[in-house]
Every structure is written in C-alpha cells, then in structure tokens.
Amino acid sequence: MKYEEEKKGCSSGAEDREKHGIGWFGSGTVIQAAAEWKGKGDKKGTGEAEKKGVTEAEGSAAISTISRSPSVLRAVLCADDTSLDFTLMAEKQLEILRGYELRLLRCTLAPPPSDLRIQSQPLNEESQCSLLPLHEHINSLIDSIESGHYLQALSSDAAKLVLDTLDFVDLNDSAECADRVYSALLQRVETFIVNDSENDVDKACRVILLMCLSIAALFWFTQCNVTGPSVHNLPKCRFPLEVSTLEGNELIEWENWARYQLMSVGSDLLGKFSYLQYIVFAKMLLIKTKDLLFDATVLPVNGIRTISWWLTRLLLMHQRILDERSSSLYDLLKVFMAETLQHFGTLENVTTYWGNQLHDIDPSEIVSTVHLEAGLLEHIYRRVDSCRKHFESAEVAAGLQLSVTGVLGFRTIHQVEPKAQMVLVANTSSSNTSDACPSISQVIHTHDSTIGDASDVFVTPKLLGNSHESETEVQCIHAGGSAAHLKAIQQAVILSKCLLIEKSSRQDEMQRWDMAPYIEAIDSQQSSCFILKVFCDLLRIRWESTRSRTKGRALEMMDKLV
C-alpha cells in the first residue's frame, strides 16, 4: 500500500526511508499509532492508525523496523514533535541495551575506579513502560556478575523467568532425563524470546538477560576449573539453575551427559573438570540465542553485536579443556571471531557503537583485547603467521612499540663487574598510558627483589646507571627506582610475545632467554592483574626450572601457585 508524502514531511526523510526500504508510514502521529499496534492497543493511537489506513500488519512492521537501528530511526523523522519523542525514546532504549553489553565486557577488562559506573540504568520510567521489570532483572544480574557472585545470578528471579514453564517433575539421575531437560530448556529459550515478548526492544532485553545467565555460568566454570578460588561444600554435579526438586542432589549421570556433549566435537577432555553442566548450559543458551538473532524476523544480529564475542570466548574455553584440537570448533570460531573483528577490530567501530558511554574505558583497550584473543585463537591452532599479525595489531592498538636492547647491569648477588643484560624497551604513547606512565621510551625494570632465599640470582637484572640516546630517548632507571607503569592490556600484550616466541623458535635454552626480557618486564611492575601475574609466574617457572641455579626458586614458586 502506497501513501503520498504529507507537506510537513521532510524530503530528506523520504529519501532515507526509501534507502532503508521501510516505506513511508506518515507523520509522527502515524508512527506513534503504529507503535500502539504492538503496545497495549491504545484506542486513540489505534484510531489514528486506522484513520491513516495503516493496518495491524503494517503497524507491526513499522515499529519492528524503526526500532532496529539509529539510522532507520532518524530516517522516519518528520516535523511532528511526537515522532521526535518516539525516536528519542527508541534511541534511549538502544543506548541502554548497549550500556548493558559494555558493562558485561568490562568484567573482563581492567577494573575501573570504584566511583565510576556505566549508566545503563533506565532514566525515564514513563518511557520504559512494561520493560522496566526486565531492566531491573538485567541490572541485578550484571551487578552480581560484576561482584563475582555468579551463583547468585543463576539463582535470581531473572533465572526463574526462563524456567517459568519448564516441567521438573519425575526427574532422576540419568542421561535420558538430562537430555530431556536441556532440550526443553532450548525450547523455552525460543519461547521466552519470540513468543513472550511484545516488540523488538523487549526481545533485545530478553536476549541480554539470557546472555547474562550464560556469562555467569561461563565465569563460574572458569573460576572453579581455571582461575580459582575454589568453592567448597557445594555439589560438583548440579544443574546450573536453581530448581527445588534438584536442590542438594548429586547429578552424576547428568555430569557424564555434559562430558559427552563436550567430547562430541571429536576429542577427549584434557583432564578432570568439575561443573561441566555450566559450560554446556552457557554454550546451549548462547548458540540458541545467536540462531534466533540470525533470523531476521526476530531481531537483526547487528543489534547486539557482542554476542559473537562471547561465543568466541566460550568456544575458546571449550577448546582449552580438550585434549586435541577440534576442527569443528575451529570452523565455528573462525566465523564468530571474524564477526567480532568486523564489529570491534578498529577504534572507529568501537567508538561508533558505544559513543559517549565509554566513560572511563579507553576504546583502544577493547580493540587491543579483540586482537589479542584473535591471536590466541590462531596460537592454539598453530597458525603462527596469523597469530603474529593479530598480536602486532594488539600492540599498536595498546600504544606500544616493543624492542629488546642491551644495558649494563648485574644478574646475580655475587657479580662484581656489570655485564650486558637483555631488557625490554617500551615506547608508549601518552594517549594509551595512565598518568603515572611517562610518554618517553623507558627501559622496564624494577627495584632489587628476590623470591625467598632459594637463589642468588635476581628475579630481574639490577641495571647500572642511566644512559641517554639522542634518537630514541631511552631512559634507564637505577635499581630501586620506579618502573614504567603499564596498563593491564599492555602487560598482556607483552606476555603474548612469549607465546609467539614459543611457537616460532626452536625449543632450547636460548628460546627461554629470548622470552626472559618480557617475563622480567611484567615482574618489574608494582601491580599486575592476578591472572597476568600467574601466567607470568608459569612462564618463569618453565624457564628457571631448566637452570640449576634457579631450580629451587622455580619449585618454591610452583608450590605457592598450587
């Protein structure tokens, strides 16, 4: 059905509407009336729609289309103030949803100052209408995830919304029962997103809610099996969500069922893992949600772009717990990582997606993290050239230019004459370092420190004096001075060089010495993220356990880690 342009409609708006293929839905009053078709059926709004000849199907199509992207929202703008109000409301909804995505991502980045928080809380109750309860659930879930209370998130009222119609009667500890429950869970996910929602914004909120539950389950599995701390007095074979009929039961066969699900990609597990149902639960929810997003009748996948990133992370964790590399997982990882790089692989894409919501987060950290994870993926599958390319991109995005040089110094307590020591030089740009980090090039080192009395070899070399070079302005600081302060993402980039050296050079004693400047650079930092410090310690243990003078210290460090 075609409509004539009204005089008060702007010509540029008509061109944009035609460009986006959304037709013309009249003035702002008609747009608002079209929205009512999918709302509570306001009589005035419905009457306006009927007066303009807008059918219910066309009204549904209108509100579905214009709520999908800011460009389409701007395209339907006319001179009527009501259209402006409606557009601002929809844009605010989109901003809130992307704020949720950013808060979830920030859980895996460096922690921000405690007094700063991304404002994703809905600000206008009148504009939220029936969506307000969903926003409250999402905020509660993200608060729990940010504070590390993953089980609290999985047992929240939001999780009960997903389990609302699931049948948990006649349950028993068998693989057949587990398969039946998880299959019903997938059907419930589709119903929860498609059938229970009122409009596309409501669907997007439900997608975010399911993402939160999946991420909480993934984080819990990672904490229990990789990072710690371990949690005692909890059944290790349990259903991820809280169900009264299953509470306190050891579902051993359900856990075995989850193990077979993980091994179905063609490899045994690397070792003994607990809470396998959690990673299976997270994988099933995210993949099902992604499949629904891929269906254009539900919501455009570009509306919630971070889901590809989270799927990549989850599948990477799945691969890491397998004994062999899986080709089927790699096929999925290539697809999802390509989408992630397309969406967040450049500074422009990141700033365009989140705009002024970034606040205390440097967008370059997000870009660098994406390339680091892409490089890690290629490293796992032993594609050295692609790995190097992504690690170099991460280095550039982090504002680093790394090189190794020689500086006179002492490596042992009993050394009398200084000798040339390999040290790492980091050229850091002022825009990518904190205020405590100078913008000139600095040799990264630390004050005199040792780990116990197990060795007479310094953890990092004690450098001799200062030296200046007119071209590079390299500054060498005496032992006992302050090392260049690096962000967490910059420290991660430095450690990634060790992985590259490990894969691209011969495994001998010289390989460990090539990695030494990067290991010592992280040990020189006054503070590091826990997981980065542990990874650095593992690299040092591998290196020092092969040397007779440091083998005792390596064993001592391993005891502390275990």
UniProtKB/TrEMBL annotation:
Keywords: Repeat, TPR repeat. Residues 1-21, 37-55 have a biased composition (Basic and acidic residues). It comes from the Eukaryota. InterPro entries: TTC27/Emw1 (IPR044244). Residues 1-23, 37-60 are annotated as: Disordered. PANTHER family: TETRATRICOPEPTIDE REPEAT PROTEIN 27. This is Uncharacterized protein.
